[in-house]
Fold Pyridine nucleotide-disulfide oxidoreductase family protein.
Amino acid sequence: MTLPRTDLLLVGAGHGHLHLLRHAGELVAAGYRVRLLAPATFDYSGVASATAAGGLSVEEGRTDVCGLAARAGVDHTVATLVGLDTARRTATTSDGTELTYDVLSLNVGSVVAPSGMTVHPSTLTVKPLSGLADLDPRIRRVGRPADVTVVGGGASGLELAAHLAVHPDVGSVHLVEAGERIGPDLPAGARRRLQRLLAARGVQVLTGWQVHEVAERAVVRADGTTLPHDLALLATGLAAPGLLADVGLGDRHGVPVRATLQHPDHPEIHAVGDCAHFLPAPLPRIGVHGVRQGPVLLCSLVARSRGAALPVYEPQRHALAILDLGAGTGLAVRGRWWWCGTSALRLKRWIDRRWIRSHRA
Ligand SMILES: Cc1cc2nc3c(=O)[nH]c(=O)nc-3n(C[C@H](O)[C@H](O)[C@H](O)COP(=O)(O)OP(=O)(O)OC[C@H]3O[C@@H](n4cnc5c(N)ncnc54)[C@H](O)[C@@H]3O)c2cc1C
């Protein structure tokens, strides 16, 4: 006798869901029919600044999602989610297909946060990473040393400004930040070290600069001051994709989830990574949470199929973050502790490559 299967639909192949694909056999054994709705490839953000600035090949950070799904025996629809009917438990895909589910899990990442400024469509954004991959070709197309403005002095803006400053086809880099200081979350000593590094590479850092408009060839301040550029890059922070709020599953903070990674009003809906709003405590949008939530999600799904209590996600108080500053240098930070140098970047590459390798083959 064949037992009825529970339809599990995974939307997005972010860090958490890649873990589920590697362990799909456990889900099948627990009684699920697993389906995936996601683009054909996944780009790993740990090497995104280096690949975007041309320091590493795009392939270094790319995972073949189709291959992983095929090896796991998971039915993969290569498309994106565009609509969701939670009452009918039906997802609509970008190719017009309707996929029904009993249990849904969302791992669709983040987008650049709405910045309240007018932004010209030619402006590059740090997310999605597929768009950021256009940075190096766009710089080369300028045809002379390019003047680039990075808007936003958080982690990704700092990484990219540092990389661009050593790019052979970049003439000047401006880093524009609305707040009084760049890297506001960094320990004071690490921030000073970073400021010295940026100054030594010729990056012009402008703080207290509230941008009103990012036009095609200039950034415009509220008082009308302009800063010309060939190319602008928007790095004003990350937010959950607007689609999730549009389908009634949350707001700009993301899909609300309890410690069990379940939506409080829809226990059949789980969310992990940047698209989730972890209700017990706000989490920074960094890959480590997506990575660490993967095994918890797997245990949750297996537990619910057995009617057992669901495990909870307990975030680390201080996660190690390592900024890739280009030219072989990294800045490692954990809580108030930090160090800057080639060994920090070597450690980052080792961690990143080990993770990427484990999701290949
Ligand atoms: C330049 C840059 C560098 C960064 N460096 C680091 C770093 O070194 N370390 C770190 O911890 N964090 C870093 N981050 C943050 C990191 O990118 C995120 O925290 C992390 O990627 C979130 O993981 P995730 O699994 O939630 O989503 P993602 O890694 O974004 O994966 C989500 C996936 O869902 C897919 N998707 C999107 N929309 C849909 C849809 N509608 N339907 C189906 N699929 C969809 C996407 O194509 C993507 O493959 C960086 C961010 C940027 C912008």
Notes: The chain is about 30% helix and 30% strand. Residues 11-16, 37-39, 42, 45-46, 48-49, 80-81, 107-109, 126-127, 156, 159, 241, 243, 273-275, 285-288, 290 surround flavin-adenine dinucleotide (CB under 6 Å).
